[in-house]
Amino acid sequence: MDQHLREQMREHFADLSNEEVLGQLGNQKTIRILEETLGDDILPELNGLKARDLDLGEKLTADDVTKYFPGVKQSVDTLLDVDGSTPNVWIQTFSDKDYIKYLAQMTILGGGMMGYLGTAICTLDFTPSLEALAVGESIAMSLGALSTLFGSPNFYDPNKENISLVKSNVARARGVMAHEYVHRVQDVVGIPFGGKHTYLSEGMAENVRDIVGKDFEDADDSLRYENLRSRFHNMQNAYRLLAKSLGSKVKKDLIQRGQPWVQPFEKMYAYGTAFCHIQEREQGQDFYRKLTNRAKQQLATIPSR
Ligand SMILES: [Zn+2]
Fold it and tell me: Are 275 and 25 in contact (CB under 8 A)?
């Protein structure tokens, strides 16, 4: 999609910009919904899965991508009412020129992560983990400390139409495939992502990942566990941030101990998932399909130059 179209679509979706999303979240009703969701829905299931010491699979290989991506794509396509072409999906290695270039670019471009996050290429996803930290550290040696903060950069590159995956465990990677494929769909149908629409685009990607994950629950529930872990992380961050801004007290049993603050880049996932969760409560899962259909209809009205 060219820049002209992107601009028009951003204007069309101005009512769902970060500012608007945040405005809708900042009230006590949101706090109550988040407490209820964390306490009744997420934590009991997550703790149950955690206690079972699940096998999360080996490190991701190209065969796993071939095996799992088509099913993930189909589930997302069905939910969002699209029938898109298949993007390239590859697994990053440290010798990849694109990967190194990308990291260098983001370090230079931003001069700091906030600057970087404002750019159009931003669809990185950060799922902090021990292995990601180890990865981050080794990159940090050559590219500066920034990447340590980022954790693991999975991303969709709209210019090359590539999905690039970190070599995480298979259960996590399957969830990430869904997330990144949602960005691909957003790109194709014209739902704005990056810039002033990161809350919407990241929230949609995370929550769709969670919904379609349920199509693939394995006997060992490993995929569910990884998706739910990510969901918990985002929702508790939203809860902490919103409670703080509204001056209300956080219930300690609903948040993770040993995590002192929410990293600035995590805000988009936090606010995004909370916002989309509230929309889902009101409109059901149709919310996402309505977004893609709205974008498709709008895109059809814009004359090409
Ligand atoms: Zn993303």
Answer: yes
- The Å distance, Cα 63 to ligand 1 centre, comes to 23
Strand partners, 118: none
How many whole angstroms from 15 Cα to the centroid of ligand 1? 20
User: According to the model, what pLDDT value does residue 261 have?
Assistant: 80
What's the rounded mean pLDDT across residues 224-233?
Answer: 94
Strand partners, 75: none
State the pTM of this model.
0.84
State which H helix or E strand residue 235 sits in: helix 222-246
Q: How far is the CA of 203 from the centre of ligand 1 (A)?
A: 8
For the chain, which residues make up each domain, given as ranges? 3-301
CA of 181 to the centre of ligand 1 (A): 9
Instruction: Quote the CA–CA distance of 278 and 273 in Å, as a whole number.
Output: 9
Distance between Cα 113 and ligand 1 center (Å) = 15
Judged on CB neighbours under 10 Å (0-12, 13-18, 19+), 242 is buried
Q: Which amino acid is at 108?
A: I
Note whether 96 and 146 are within 8 A (CB): no
Query: What is the C-alpha to C-alpha distance for residues 53 and 3, in angstroms, rounded to an integer?
Result: 47
147 Cα to the center of ligand 1, angstroms: 16
Distance 177 CA to ligand 1 centre (A): 10
Tell me, in angstroms, the distance from the centre of ligand 1 to residue 234's CA. 12
State percent of the chain over pLDDT 90. Answer: 61
